[in-house]
């Protein structure tokens, strides 16, 4: 119950933030602007619209996480509201999970708005059959954003907003290229190869949440893929929030 209350308050604060509304509007404007470019796409206009539409969900969602999530705990400290919150019988794990759930809900709201907008654009273009694969891709993008939000909440609980944003962005980039890093590590000196492989293994496997190429062809993914991605996101978020709680417990707010 307390988790739900903290999540609801965090969701309300995030949705009142102009950043969130601005990103949603920017995504819709981008979808409409892409229509101007489709005649130049050499017959690949549909692929261009789907690919850019889904990319905008991931990129704009990431920007929200970096701009809002990285200062999630720091704002509470600055306003001193965290002192009154944690003076009550509220566990720090409960506090962090509530913050993560609230911001994840806000980011998912953007993903849903942009995903449905993309489906609407495709229906107007006479390619409504792409709707199923676009909704699947939107779901996977939302899972990816939930994982990155957990990382942002962890760094927000431990560091300043600027450093939290930089650390989160670094984890996102390593996660996106984790498969390439493993291949490159073979060519590195042994010590550097071990460090590179460790980074690639610890970072989230974000390519698991990417089905833009399939969606651009109108092809759905499998139920196994969706199930594995869901379980992986739950597992990774649980691990990251557990680490964040362990580190957050050592902070003194008295």
Would you write up a description of this structure?
The protein contains twelve helices and no strands. It has helices at 2-16, 18-37, 45-68, 72-79, 81-86, 92-124, 131-158, 161-176, 178-185, 190-202, 212-216, 223-248. The chain is globular and about 60 Å long. The mean pLDDT is 85.
Measured as a percent range, the helix fraction is over 70%
Parts with pLDDT < 50 across at least 5 consecutive residues: none
* Multimerization state: single chain
Give the biggest sheet.
Answer: none
Task: List how many beta strands DSSP finds.
Answer: 0
Helical stretch tally: 12
What percent strand? under 5%
What is the CA–CA distance across the termini? Answer: 25 Å
Structure class:
mainly alpha
What is the element string, with H for helices and E for strands?
Answer: HHHHHHHHHHHH
Give the overall shape. Answer: globular
Whole-number average pLDDT? Answer: 85
Features:
mainly alpha, 254 residues
Strands, helices and their partners?
Layout: H1 2-16, H2 18-37, H3 45-68, H4 72-79, H5 81-86, H6 92-124, H7 131-158, H8 161-176, H9 178-185, H10 190-202, H11 212-216, H12 223-248
Helix pairs in contact: 1-6, 2-3, 2-6, 3-6, 3-7, 6-7, 6-12, 7-8, 7-12, 9-10
């Amino acid at each position: 119950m307390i988790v739900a209350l903290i999540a609801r308050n965090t969701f309300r604060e995030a949705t009142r933030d102009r950043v969130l509304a601005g990103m949603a509007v920017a995504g819709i404007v981008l979808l409409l602007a892409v229509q101007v470019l489709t005649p130049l796409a050499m017959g690949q206009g549909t692929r261009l619209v789907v690919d850019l539409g889904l990319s905008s969900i991931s990129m704009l969602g990431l920007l929200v996480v970096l701009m809002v999530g990285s200062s999630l705990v720091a704002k509470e400290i600055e306003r001193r509201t965290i002192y009154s919150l944690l003076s009550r019988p509220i566990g720090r794990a409960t506090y962090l999970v509530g913050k993560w759930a609230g911001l994840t809900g806000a980011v998912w709201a953007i993903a849903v708005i942009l995903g449905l907008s993309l489906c609407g654009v495709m229906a107007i273009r006479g390619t409504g059959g792409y709707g199923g694969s676009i909704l699947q891709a939107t779901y996977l993008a939302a899972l990816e954003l939930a994982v990155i939000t957990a990382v942002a909440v962890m760094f927000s609980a431990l560091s300043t907003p600027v450093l939290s944003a930089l650390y989160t962005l670094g984890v996102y980039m390593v996660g996106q290229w984790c498969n390439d890093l493993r291949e490159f590590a073979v060519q590195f000196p042994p010590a550097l190869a071990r460090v590179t492989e460790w980074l690639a293994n610890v970072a989230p496997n974000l390519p698991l949440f990417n089905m833009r190429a399939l969606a651009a062809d109108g092809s759905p993914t499998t139920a196994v893929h969706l199930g594995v991605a869901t379980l992986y996101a739950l597992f990774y978020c649980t691990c990251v929030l557990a680490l964040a709680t362990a580190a957050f417990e050592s902070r003194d707010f008295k």
